[in-house]
């Protein structure tokens, strides 16, 4: 059923992803007869709540506004395009360039996983696994990006204009500011995106937003303070010195885009100042094709996004993220050869939460070594392997093999791409001055609720933490639907019962059906109506 029929004027907001959860950002704004998505991200880690589907067909979404390139905000865009979305995707130019490699990388991961699963399925006589989307889908998606500048106003529809403000989270990251005029009323809405921390390498601090009628704000660190900014150069150099003295490696699970480049900036300074005495010219491996491509993007015509300190280096002819001893691994063979190097070294590899990618191979080779260090430099979502290691798990499973955790586990305190509680409140104080309502999302379940309470008590403005499926009327500010607040039941780990193969087959069949629906876009009304009737008949038969 269509909740927001196309062509009818509604000024409404529906929360879909990252509602009482940290990943999978997606929000639907319906106004002036248009359906507009803000972000369409992929979830990372297990679900806490059941997420609502987008209530309109992909072909009925008029455009998408993307806050930044991280996969938990952009990762489902190729799927949406494969299912029929054919409108523009507005973002900053830097976000567009980063997505041109990140979405292709994500598609490659989807296809690789499908190939791996299908090898197993063939041996087991199971049904084939269909990837979420393909490289072709990602390439098609990339053609739809429209690059925008910070601070300029863009009219995306009659009555709707948007602008982008630097959010200080990632190269090209932004808050999206809407001005919507409908039925003689104008409402200003701000979607914060991910708000960055201050005094970070390479990129500028978050901008100060204007006052808005409605604010949608993230809350990743809405319950904690980073404290005084540490000296990252000093902290990291000590960890390197101590680990190298033991004869071990420093393995850093790092997000390929953003965090890896920041760490290279810090390591360049460490080397420049000669702070690691035992092995001054230690080797640093960047083992991620995506990170390597991102390094090139950071170095090509991206100076408009740099902070003043970095610009000064560039003016002096210094590459801010390059140094002697930096080696990159692109191919699988190059990646495997890293572990053949017995000298102490630094290995930067994705993914940042250890959920996939080459980092898992490096963990397999180093977690059991008491002389090595695993250094975490970013947020670890609940349910991820990274979170388990940080919280002191003594044994983990990698590639079906139990691995003892004997390595030193370290974290760089405060090195986060997200603003802390005070930073979020500072942002909210500016944006929510005189606001009708503040919506808190993109945070763990209890964090969103508590931070909404903090905003209400501190700023004197009504703040709520909507669940997925929540709908709000922006003319009245009233909640029309409360969404799904029921926890997803987690399987009992002690249970001896495996998931039903038949149910898994049914789940895979549903994915294939979605793809088939997308490929029928443009068919005759008669054929599409017949197809819809057949699907609805099946639903009626099995809805029991």
3D architecture notes:
The protein folds into three domains: 12-225 and 417-482, Ribonuclease Z/Hydroxyacylglutathione hydrolase-like (Metallo-beta-lactamase, Chain A), CATH 3.60.15; 232-411, Rossmann fold, CATH 3.40.50.10890; 504-542, no CATH class. Helices cover 34% and strands 21% of the residues. The protein contains 15 helices and 23 strands. It has helices spanning 71-74, 77-82, 93-124, 135-142, 232-246, 259-273, 289-299, 308-315, 332-338, 359-366, 385-390, 421-431, 445-459, 501-519, 525-542, and strands at 12-17, 26-31, 34-40, 63-65, 89-92, 145-148, 153-157, 160-166, 174-182, 185-191, 214-218, 250-253, 283-287, 326-329, 345-349, 373-376, 395-398, 401-404, 408-411, 437-441, 463-464, 470-473, 479-482. The strands form four sheets. The protein has an eight-stranded mixed sheet with strand order 6-5-4-3-2-1-22-23. Strands 7-8-9-10-11-20-21 form a seven-stranded mixed sheet, with helices on one face. A six-stranded parallel sheet has the order 14-13-15-12-16-19. Strand 9 (174-182) and strand 10 (185-191) form a beta hairpin. It is globular. The two termini are 18 Å apart. Mean pLDDT is 89; it is low at 493-499.
* Number of H/I helices: 15
Helix and strand content put the structural class at alpha/beta
CATH top level of the largest domain is Alpha Beta
Strand content: 15-25%
Name the overall outline: globular
Oligomer: single chain
Strand order of the largest sheet: 6-5-4-3-2-1-22-23
CATH topology of the largest domain: Metallo-beta-lactamase, Chain A
Radius of gyration: 24 Å
Ends: how far apart? 18 Å
Residue stretches low in confidence (pLDDT < 50, at least 5 long) are: 493-499
Helix fraction, binned, reads 25-40%
What's the story with the biggest beta sheet?
8 strands, mixed
In total, how many beta strands? 23
**How many discrete structural domains?**
3
Q: What integer is the average pLDDT?
A: 89
CATH superfamily of the largest domain: Ribonuclease Z/Hydroxyacylglutathione hydrolase-like
CATH architecture of the largest domain: 4-Layer Sandwich
């Amino acid at each position: 059923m269509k909740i927001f029929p196309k062509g009818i004027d509604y000024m409404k907001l529906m929360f879909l992803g990252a509602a009482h959860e940290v990943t999978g950002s997606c929000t639907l704004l319906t106004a002036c007869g248009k359906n507009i998505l803000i972000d369409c991200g992929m979830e990372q880690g297990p679900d806490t709540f059941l997420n609502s589907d987008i209530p309109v067909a992909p072909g009925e979404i008029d455009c998408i506004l993307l806050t930044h390139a991280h996969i938990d905000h952009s990762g489902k865009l190729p799927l949406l395009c494969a299912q029929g979305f054919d409108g523009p995707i507005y973002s900053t130019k830097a976000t567009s360039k980063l997505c041109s490699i990140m979405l292709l990388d994500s598609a490659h991961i989807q296809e690789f996983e499908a190939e791996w699963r299908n090898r197993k399925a063939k041996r087991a006589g199971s049904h084939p696994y269909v990837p979420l989307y393909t490289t072709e889908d990602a390439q098609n998606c990339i053609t739809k990006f429209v690059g925008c500048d910070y601070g300029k106003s863009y009219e995306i529809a009659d009555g709707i204009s948007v602008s982008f403000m630097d959010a200080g989270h990632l190269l090209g990251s932004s808050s999206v500011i809407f001005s919507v005029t409908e039925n003689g009323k104008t409402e200003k809405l701000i979607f914060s995106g991910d708000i960055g921390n201050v005094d970070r390498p390479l990129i500028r601090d978050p901008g100060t937003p204007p006052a808005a009628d409605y604010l949608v704000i993230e809350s990743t660190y809405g319950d904690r303070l980073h404290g005084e900014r540490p000296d990252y150069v000093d902290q990291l150099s000590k960890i390197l010195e101590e680990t190298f003295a033991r004869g071990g490696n420093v393995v850093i699970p790092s997000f390929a885009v953003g965090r890896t480049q920041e760490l290279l900036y810090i390591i360049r300074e460490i080397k420049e100042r000669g702070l690691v005495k035992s092995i001054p010219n230690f080797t640093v491996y960047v083992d991620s094709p995506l990170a390597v491509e991102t390094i090139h993007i950071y170095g090509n015509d991206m100076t408009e996004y740099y902070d003043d300190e970095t610009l000064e280096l560039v003016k002096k002819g210094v590459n801010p993220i390059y140094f002697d001893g930096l080696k990159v691994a692109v191919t699988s063979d190059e990646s495997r050869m890293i572990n053949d190097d017995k000298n102490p070294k630094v290995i930067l590899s994705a993914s940042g939460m250890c959920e996939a990618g080459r980092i898992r191979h490096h963990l397999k080779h180093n977690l059991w070594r008491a002389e090595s260090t695993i250094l975490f430099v970013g947020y670890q979502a609940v349910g991820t392997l990274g979170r388990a290691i940080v919280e002191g798990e003594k044994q983990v499973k990698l590639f079906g093999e139990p691995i003892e955790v004997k390595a030193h586990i370290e974290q760089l305190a405060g090195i986060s791409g997200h603003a802390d509680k005070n930073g979020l409140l500072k942002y909210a104080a500016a944006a929510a001055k005189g606001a009708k309502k503040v919506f808190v999302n993109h945070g763990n379940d209890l964090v969103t609720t508590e931070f909404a309470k903090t905003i209400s008590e501190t700023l004197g403005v009504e703040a709520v933490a909507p669940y997925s499926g929540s709908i709000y009327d922006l003319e009245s500010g009233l909640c029309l639907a409360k969404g799904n607040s029921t926890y997803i039941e987690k399987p009992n780990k002690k249970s001896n019962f495996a998931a039903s193969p038949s149910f898994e087959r049914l789940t895979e069949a549903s994915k294939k059906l979605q793809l088939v629906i997308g490929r029928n876009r443009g068919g005759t009304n008669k054929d599409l109506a017949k197809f819809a009737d057949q699907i609805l008949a099946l639903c009626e038969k099995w809805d029991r």
